[in-house]
Design goal:
Elements (H helix, E strand, L loop, with lengths): L1 H17 L11 H14 L4 E5 L4 E5 L1 H11 L7 H6 E7 L6 E7 L7 E8 L8 E10 L2 E10 L3 E10 L2 E11 L1
Length: 178
C-alpha cells in the first residue's frame, strides 16, 4: 500500500513540477534593445531620413518623431504575465554559425497587435543583427497588416497593406535610415 501511495505522490509531484509557469519564461528584451538603439541614435545625433513610396520621396524627421513611430510598432510588454502567456517561443539554430533565430508567436486568441517577432542574432554576440515583426491593426473598417524589419545600427523598414471588406485597397512602404 505504501509503495502505491508513494508512486502516486511521486507522479503528482512530477506532473506539477512539469507545468510551465509563465513567471519562469524568459524572453529576449526586444523593447529594451530598441530603446538602446534609439538612445544610440539620439546620443550620436544621427540624422534620420524617412523614405516613403516607390518614388523614393525622402525627408528628414526628428529623433522624437522616429522614437514615437518605432516604439509604437514594437509595442509588446513581455514583463506583463498575461502577455507572456499569449506568446510561444521557438529557437532555431541554422547550424552554420551565421544565425540564431528566436521566434515569438502570438496564439490565435491573442488580442496583441504583434503576431510574430523574430530576433536574429549572430552566434557569440548578444545584440541582434535584425528584428523582424508582423503586426495587424484594426481601425474602424480597415485592417492594416504590417511587415517590419529593424536592421541594427542602420534602418527600419515597414511594408503595410490596407484592407477593407477583405479587399486590398492600398499598399505602402516606408524606410527610415540613419
Amino acid at each position: 500500500m505504501n509503495r502505491i501511495l508513494f508512486s502516486w505522490l511521486f507522479f503528482v509531484a512530477s506532473f506539477i513540477s512539469c507545468k510551465e509557469d509563465s513567471n519562469n519564461k524568459n524572453y529576449y528584451p526586444v523593447q529594451a534593445w530598441i530603446a538602446a538603439e534609439l538612445k544610440n541614435i539620439d546620443s550620436l545625433n544621427l540624422s534620420i531620413t524617412h523614405i516613403s513610396g516607390d518614388q523614393h520621396d525622402s525627408v528628414g524627421i526628428s529623433g522624437k518623431d522616429f522614437k514615437q513611430i518605432a516604439l509604437g510598432l514594437f509595442s509588446v510588454d513581455f514583463t506583463n504575465e498575461n502577455t507572456r502567456d499569449e506568446f510561444a517561443e521557438e529557437v532555431l539554430d541554422e547550424g552554420d554559425n551565421t544565425n540564431i533565430s528566436i521566434l515569438y508567436f502570438a496564439d490565435e486568441k491573442s488580442k496583441q497587435p504583434l503576431k510574430k517577432i523574430q530576433v536574429n542574432i549572430k552566434p557569440g554576440q548578444s545584440s541582434p543583427k535584425s528584428i523582424y515583426a508582423e503586426r495587424t491593426d484594426i481601425t474602424d473598417k480597415t485592417i492594416i497588416s504590417r511587415k517590419i524589419i529593424w536592421e541594427s545600427g542602420h534602418s527600419l523598414t515597414v511594408a503595410s497593406a490596407y484592407y477593407q471588406n477583405k479587399q486590398l485597397i492600398r499598399e505602402a512602404k516606408e524606410k527610415f535610415e540613419w
